[in-house]
Amino acid sequence: MSTETTQRGEYVALTKCWYCGGDNEVLIHRQLRSIKGMHDKVVNKTPCTNCEQHMKRGIILIGVIEAKSGGDVENPYRSGAFVVLTESAVARLIQPKALADAVIKHRSAFIEHQALLDIGAIKQDG
């Protein structure tokens, strides 16, 4: 790898989406300073194009396993489950109404993996 390529790689980063973990934004430092520490990392909660479309169509529910989260409610351990439900489905399935309204307003929520199984949003593996 040439020195020029190595240097270029230090001031360009491809970030990850907070919601799905997929590729999100390309960052380029204006003063050509190293930002390689941001590569493959979530740097904000801006959804990627796919998640933005999901949020226009419905509500993203991200499966989590609370027991493995170590009390981190801001970024809990994710189970890998990712579903999109309509607003009406969220309003029917999530109670109390105030909680359902908050989930609909924010367009996404973490939900215990077992709850996704219980409501039939996902199927049990194997």
Description of the structure:
There is one protein chain. This protein is α+β, with helices and mostly antiparallel strands and 126 residues long. The protein folds into 2 domains: 3-38, no CATH class; 58-118, no CATH class. Helices cover 32% and strands 24% of the residues. The protein is built from 5 helices and 5 strands. The protein has helices spanning 3-10, 49-57, 87-93, 97-106, 113-118; strands at 12-16, 23-28, 59-64, 78-85, 108-112. The protein has a 3-stranded mixed beta sheet with strand order 4-3-5. Strand 1 (12-16) and strand 2 form a beta hairpin. Helix 3 runs antiparallel to helix 4. The longest helix has 10 residues, at 97-106. 18% of the residues are buried.
Outline the secondary-structure elements:
Blueprint: H1 3-10, E1 12-16, E2 23-28, H2 49-57, E3 59-64, E4 78-85, H3 87-93, H4 97-106, E5 108-112, H5 113-118
Parallel strand pairs: 3-5
Antiparallel strand pairs: 1-2, 3-4
Helix pairs in contact: 3-4
